[in-house]
Design a protein that fits this description.
alpha/beta, 7-stranded mixed sheet, 9 helices, 313 residues
Amino acid sequence: MLEKIRIFSGNSNIGLAEKICEKLGVVLGKANVTTFSDGETQVEINENVRGMDVFIIQSTCSPVNVMCMELLIMIDAMKRASAERITAVVPYYGYGRQDRKVAPRAPISAKLLADLITTAGANRVLSMDLHAGQIQGFFNIPVDNLFATPVLLEYIKKTYLNDTVVVSPDTGGVERARAFGKRLGASLAIIDKRREGPNEAQVMNIIGNVKGKGVIILDDMIDTAGTVVQAAKALKDAGALQICVCCTHPVLSGPALERIEGSDIKEVVVTDTIPLNDRAKKCKRIKVLSVSGLLSEAVRRIYYNDSVSSLFI
């Protein structure tokens, strides 16, 4: 049934790629993605892709620049090998936070990466929980932006059901939190924060009632965990009983793990769009859910040219 599909992976998230292949009943494509001694990325595709529908699975996570180059070079290799269609499956889209000018002479790096992916030869992009919806408009090719909400909701409904409030850690995530809360049957609260600099945030005020209730903080990613830890402290001071954090992308850089372990957060629920490092795997507060089912279904529908709109929930 899927005789013309070929799925390949760079080095960023081979585990997720293998899960997607397992669900589709196909074998992960043979490719060597290594480096020369000076650090240049080298790609060798070890099977025929001429006339094939190729999917390249690569999260542009740490080390971000290396993973971006692997993705671009793999796309170029497939194009030059006469693949019929190339889909870049980017579960985590790096540089997504740089989606607009926030200061004079600042770049819009999310647009630059979109241009690079398109110029390399991708025919379409499949991603998940883009940091800003307008990133889809940075591409001149089709973009499917899936949401991890169904996966997170399934777990939350089984675990946290008693008088719950969904909290947006900033005003930019209110729409996401409102939709999540509506499907959960929970009320909404908002953290009003002021960002003092990159990876720095200061909680200012809580809009909504959390006293005596369980709280779920919902965000698209956790980087250094400064925002969610400060939010958790403010919510605890406001009378929240227990605090759970849900996010799609566990970037978890710098002091993130130390902050989480020393905080009032009971559990951090994440997905496998980014693989956890060895230290994060040992953290008992982190629960990892897989989005391989969502992504594999999207890949299948793209291959058969079926609608994927029902997955945008």
